[in-house]
Specification:
Shape: elongated
Helix content: 25-40%
Largest sheet: none
Radius of gyration: 26 Å
Number of strands: 0
Number of helices: 3
Order of helices and strands: HHH
Distance between the termini: 60 Å
Structural class: mainly alpha
Length: about 90
């Protein structure tokens, strides 16, 4: 744990995979799962930029929901269509 702590102070972006690889190069027999468990026990989480895949782009248009105030009270009142593309089958 002291080796993990010293290494993490030098390289705070190391996750469990890089930490295990670094410790194996230093001569310690440590697997990824053990490095992950020890890092979690010590409260160490790597610092890196996380993917922001759910943030909308500011220039993209937000379309209004047209059925918000509509009361749907009978069958076939509202229809929907799936416009996703599926490639034609070869053959």
């Amino acid at each position: 744990m002291t080796v993990i702590d010293e290494t993490f102070m030098e390289c705070p972006w190391y996750g469990s995979r890089q930490m295990a690889r670094h410790m194996r190069r230093a001569g310690h027999e440590v697997g990824r799962r053990r490095a992950r468990r020890l890092m979690a026990k010590m409260g160490l989480t790597p610092i890196y930029q996380r993917p922001r895949t759910s943030d909308p782009h500011p220039q993209h248009r937000v379309y209004p929901y047209l059925l918000r105030k509509l009361v749907i009270d009978r069958p076939n009142h509202v229809w929907c269509a799936d416009v996703t593309y599926s490639a034609p089958r070869p053959g």
